[in-house]
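Consider the tokenized backbone below.
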């Protein structure tokens, strides 16, 4: 098993924001307080490095959401609504941009379509014909079954809010200076388990931690290297470790100590 297998995935994210908004309206959830693009991006960085982020809409109608999207460096593509037809051309622009990227940036191997519109099914098929993996993200009530079935993987926005109950909680006596680092370790390990990674190499976990929090550094929590952080986490009953005989590096085998750990 290649320790760097999780680093090979590079993602391009295309957001049909109007379709997403319609989904929220159908579930009475369209509010700045309840919508956060961060929920989507947090899940996607578990799958690899996000290279491109674009969102399409008539932003005059959704100006209250522009700040949230800008904070995560998402490029906003202005698509004015056509008054005669009542329909905008966001889907056409998104498809053109996605296919252009498919042919011009061969290093991007995963495309994410944030929409529930069945009109994107031909785009998904064409991307897959070109050897790309396609992930869909959308609302349960407004997503086409045709689109879901055509994607390699589909994620419901509503499911992003569900918390996994299996990871351990930090003990109350955990030093305040270390809590953030340990929580990031637990969240990243949980993410890799969710992705069904067979072996959780220490390097793989650290890469995921840095994607989730680019400013992460083990030295900020008082450790000379990442192995020391893992060893301390094991002593506190947060993770279980073993040493890979070939590389001599740590592998996380589960949560908790020997008496309570969850095997992968």
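A designed sequence for it:
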């Amino acid at each position: 098993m290649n320790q760097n297998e999780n680093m090979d995935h590079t993602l391009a994210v295309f957001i049909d924001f109007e379709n997403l908004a319609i989904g929220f309206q159908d579930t009475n959830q369209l509010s700045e307080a309840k919508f956060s693009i961060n929920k989507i991006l947090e899940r996607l960085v578990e799958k690899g490095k996000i290279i491109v982020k674009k969102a399409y809409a008539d932003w005059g109608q959704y100006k209250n959401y522009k700040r949230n999207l800008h904070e995560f460096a998402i490029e906003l593509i202005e698509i004015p609504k056509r008054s005669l037809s009542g329909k905008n051309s966001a889907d056409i622009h998104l498809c053109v941009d996605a296919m252009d990227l498919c042919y011009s940036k061969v290093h991007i191997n995963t495309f994410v379509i944030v929409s529930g519109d069945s009109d994107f099914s031909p785009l998904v098929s064409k991307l897959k014909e070109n050897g790309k993996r396609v992930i869909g993200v959308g609302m349960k009530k407004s997503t086409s079954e045709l689109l879901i079935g055509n994607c390699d993987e589909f994620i419901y926005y509503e499911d992003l809010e569900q918390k996994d109950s299996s990871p351990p909680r930090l003990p109350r006596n955990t030093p305040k200076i270390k809590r953030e680092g340990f929580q990031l370790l637990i969240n990243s390990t949980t993410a890799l388990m969710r992705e069904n990674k067979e072996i959780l190499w220490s390097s793989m976990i650290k890469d995921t931690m840095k994607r989730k929090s680019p400013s992460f550094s083990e030295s900020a929590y008082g450790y000379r290297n990442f192995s020391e952080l893992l060893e301390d986490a094991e002593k506190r009953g947060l993770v279980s470790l073993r040493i890979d005989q070939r590389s001599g590096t740590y592998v996380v085998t589960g949560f908790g100590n020997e008496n309570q750990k969850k095997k992968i």
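The first strand starts at residue 10 and ends at 16.
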